[in-house]
Every structure is written in structure tokens, then in C-alpha cells.
Amino acid sequence: MNAARLRGLYAVTPDTAADLCAPVSAALRGGARLVQFRNKSGPSDQRIDQARQLKALCAAAGALFIVNDDIELAHAIGADGVHLGKDDVGISAARTLLGAGAIVGASCYDSLELAAAAAAAGANYLAFGSFFPSRTKPGAVRADPTLLQTAHERFDVPLCAIGGITTMNGGALVAAGADMLAIVDGLFGAPNVEGAAAAYAALWADDRNGCTRP
After folding, report:
1. Which residues are identified as catalytic?
2. How many domains does the chain have?
3. pLDDT digit string (tens) for 118-149?
């Protein structure tokens, strides 16, 4: 997996039965480089249909498509990878099912110990947060931005920041070492999803000059 692709706006879909094609298409037009499909409550056939539609949109846009938690769904539709929390199936099990070329991301919350274990197990990226109050997960563990600086120095793995991130506070996280910013409400709750995506994507303006990490 080319780690340079694990950089930029990481659009995370809301958990909804509504049609996601239009907002995800807008996010991709605005510059999202990865899309994570998060739907834990819908019927299986509906989730499969949604995931297949979104995967096709991402493929057409040259973006990566990641499934949240569900390695069987990711395998069934040929997703680019899966994102796992601490209570989900292990990284090795995901790798066994999805193959060596799949992206496996790991939630590390506010813990460098979890990050070290995930990196040792072969995670392709490490996600930290919530860095700010989040309407999506109001009870989420809070992480300090200095954690990104430490993780950036310690791990040679792309880092993702999540939780209450806006275009106003996201730049500081990128400067601290975040390769990706995972956005739910700040993107899909915006009145203009494409414009919001473009504003987030602009936080990596230096990428145009060949920058890959801070």
C-alpha cells in the first residue's frame, strides 16, 4: 500500500439509511481522498447495496473506500480496506481475510500503547481522537493534539485525527502530524458538502509541492 495515498480529507459517512450517493459524490468533488462507510444499524442487503454504490463512486474519483468495522462486508464488495476499533476483530484476522494489499486502520483513541500494538500488528494507519467535542460521539475519549506530535516521532505509519474537527481547528492537527482528518458532521452536516470538502482539502495545500508528511 502506497502510504502517500493515506493523506488528506477522510470523509466518514453518517450512520443513516438515507441515500449517501449525492453527498459522497459532493465530498469527492471537493477533494476527499478517502471515504469510510459507517452503517452499523441497517439491514444487511441495504448495507451491501450502499457500500457497492459508494465504492464505485470512489473508484471513479480515484479515492480509497474503507468499511468501518465489518471485515466480511469489506471482503464481499472488494473494499480497499477496513477500519477497526479496539473491540472489533483483530488486525491479523482482518489481514488474513482481506489480503496483504488491504488497508487496515486502527482506532487508538488517546493511547500510544494501543498505537504501538496496532503498528506492530501491521496497521496501515493509526487514528487518534476525539480531539474536540464531537456531536457524532459526544462521549468519546478526548485526546490532546500533542499526542500527534509524539506519535509522529515514534511511528512510521500515517496518522489520522478525528473528533469535532473543523476547518478552523484542523490546520493545527495537520501541523502536529495528522496525515488525515476524519470528518463526519463537519462535512456531511454542512449545507454545501462540496464547499466544505474543498475547505478541508485546502489544509493540505503543500501537497501540491510534493509534501507527504509534516
Report:
1. 38, 107, 137
2. 1
3. 999 999 999 999 999 877 777 778 899 999 99
